[in-house]
Amino acid sequence: MLTYLNISTYNFVNDSMALTHFRSKRKSTGGLYKRIRKKKKRDFGSDFIPIKIGSKKKKVIEGLANIRKQRLLQIDKANVFDSSGKAKITKILSVKENSANPHFVRMGIITKGAIIETELGLAKVVSRPGQDGVVNAIKIEKK
């Protein structure tokens, strides 16, 4: 017996295709736009790189004009600021809550807005670890 797959439900990723932040090819009516120009390097984007808990690992990416950006892949320490504004470097123990995606808690992925458990207690991540290359967090005070 033959089984047919509904291809529209599967999300296929083609590695040869570039992710761009360019105008759509189609109008809201369904018609095609005329092509204005070719894709430029400045139009290219990047995939989401999950930041996990582990020994510090960074990846260097070359941007436009030979600018080198550091993408964080793994980290085990965070700069935690208390209510007085003083920072302490503490070890990240686990991810407790993540409003970006509930599955990120199970996988231990850190994003901006995530609640992490540190040696000092719970803290909320205020930096963008994938962009900034560091985890800055504010300690959550119990009331």
Explain what you see.
With 143 residues, the chain is mostly beta strands. It has a domain of 89 residues: Structural Genomics Hypothetical 15.5 Kd Protein In mrcA-pckA Intergenic Region, Chain A (Roll), CATH 3.10.290. It has 2 helices and 9 strands, in the order E-E-E-E-E-H-E-E-E-H-E. The strands form 2 sheets. A 5-stranded mixed beta barrel has the order 4-5-7-8-9. A 4-stranded mixed β-sheet has the order 2-3-1-6. A hairpin with a 2-residue loop joins strand 7 and strand 8. The chain is elongated, with a radius of gyration of 20 Å.
What can be said about this structure in brief?
By secondary structure, the protein is mainly beta. The chain has two helices and nine strands, in the order E-E-E-E-E-H-E-E-E-H-E.
Total helical elements: 2
CATH architecture grouping of the domain at 51-139: Roll
Spatial sequence of strands, sheet with the most strands:
4-5-7-8-9
Largest sheet: number of strands, sense, barrel closure = 5 strands, mixed, barrel
Bin the helical content.
under 10%
Q: Which overall shape is indicated by the principal axes computed on the Cα atoms?
A: elongated
Low-confidence stretches: 1-13
Assigned CATH class of the domain at 51-139: Alpha Beta
Q: DSSP strand (E) fraction? A: 25-35%
Look at the helices and sheets and give the structural class.
Answer: mainly beta
Overall average pLDDT? 85
Gyration radius, to the nearest Å? Answer: 20 Å
Straight-line distance between termini: 63 Å
Q: How many beta strands in the DSSP annotation?
A: 9
CATH third-level topology of the domain at 51-139: Structural Genomics Hypothetical 15.5 Kd Protein In mrcA-pckA Intergenic Region, Chain A
SSE series: EEEEEHEEEHE
